[in-house]
UniProtKB/TrEMBL annotation:
<comment type="subunit">
    <text>Interacts with MinD and FtsZ.</text>
</comment>
<dbReference type="InterPro" id="IPR016098">
    <property type="entry name" value="CAP/MinC_C"/>
</dbReference>
<dbReference type="Pfam" id="PF05209">
    <property type="entry name" value="MinC_N"/>
</dbReference>
<dbReference type="Pfam" id="PF03775">
    <property type="entry name" value="MinC_C"/>
</dbReference>
<keyword id="KW-0717">Septation</keyword>
<feature type="domain" description="Septum formation inhibitor MinC N-terminal">
    <location>
        <begin position="6"/>
        <end position="74"/>
    </location>
</feature>
<dbReference type="InterPro" id="IPR007874">
    <property type="entry name" value="MinC_N"/>
</dbReference>
<protein>
    <recommendedName>
        <fullName>Probable septum site-determining protein MinC</fullName>
    </recommendedName>
</protein>
<keyword id="KW-0132">Cell division</keyword>
<dbReference type="InterPro" id="IPR013033">
    <property type="entry name" value="MinC"/>
</dbReference>
<keyword id="KW-0131">Cell cycle</keyword>
<dbReference type="InterPro" id="IPR036145">
    <property type="entry name" value="MinC_C_sf"/>
</dbReference>
<comment type="similarity">
    <text>Belongs to the MinC family.</text>
</comment>
<dbReference type="InterPro" id="IPR005526">
    <property type="entry name" value="Septum_form_inhib_MinC_C"/>
</dbReference>
<comment type="function">
    <text>Cell division inhibitor that blocks the formation of polar Z ring septums. Rapidly oscillates between the poles of the cell to destabilize FtsZ filaments that have formed before they mature into polar Z rings. Prevents FtsZ polymerization.</text>
</comment>
<feature type="domain" description="Septum formation inhibitor MinC C-terminal">
    <location>
        <begin position="115"/>
        <end position="215"/>
    </location>
</feature>
Length: 220
């Protein structure tokens, strides 16, 4: 039986680079530093550039080149308000995306919580699609746990935790012992060097507060 290609909807986590000027070299240097801290997470990762703060259309070819040198891939623009920017994006093969503030995405169907009882080893990735994720064990360095909902970790979190992967801003990360390489909620993320020292090796809750992460202690 002959099979045909299928076009299906899906959801992916995309990092957004918020440009404030056309100094792409400086932006690329900052990104390169981030990539060096978590290369497995960022290497080859798709990036969307937010150009809403720019008055003129940037040199998109130069922007693509600068990002490619960091190992990240520019796949589209958001915050586009001018037709010339939209046309130039199309000419260089970039998508033009609307942010969640510009369009409301229908809420996905929620499925039962995914429960993992074994340790999540380095190199493993666990994904709870349209659900919360509960890990009743440790998450090793180099491992990645992802959920469209919230993440609950009852062991040590040394790897990467990505909650609200489909954009759910009410998602949370709860863990009993925070030593994470990366924390992310609804696309906003912190690497380990940004986590305040007073929360390291402590039980915490990570949430999103006005597009920035917030960490609060958990009461035992």
């Amino acid at each position: 039986m002959h099979k045909h290609p299928e076009l299906k909807g899906s959801t992916f986590t995309l990092s957004v680079l918020h440009l404030v000027d056309d100094n792409f070299t400086e932006a690329a240097a900052i990104l390169a530093d981030k990539v060096s801290q978590a290369p497995a997470f960022f290497e080859g990762a798709p990036v969307v550039a937010d150009v809403s703060r720019l008055k003129l259309c940037p040199d998109l070819t130069a922007l693509k080149h600068c990002l490619s040198e960091t190992g990240m891939i520019l796949v589209g623009l958001t915050g586009v308000t001018h037709n010339d920017t939209r046309q130039q994006a199309k000419s260089v093969g970039l998508a033009v995306l609307k942010s969640s503030k510009q369009s409301r995405v229908a809420d996905p169907i929620q499925t039962p919580t995914k429960v993992v009882t074994n340790p999540v080893r380095s190199g493993q990735q666990i994904y709870a699609k349209n659900a919360d994720l509960v890990v009743l064990n440790h998450v090793s360095a180099g491992a990645e746990v992802i959920a469209d909902g919230s993440i609950h970790i009852y062991g040590v979190l040394r790897g990467r935790a990505i909650a609200g992967a489909s954009g759910q801003q009410q998602a949370r990360i709860y863990c009993q012992n925070l030593q994470s390489e990366l924390l992310s909620v609804a696309g906003s993320y912190w690497l380990s060097d940004k986590i305040p020292s007073e929360f390291i090796e402590r039980p915490v809750m990570v949430s999103l507060n006005q597009e920035s992460l917030q960490i609060d202690p958990l009461t035992l």
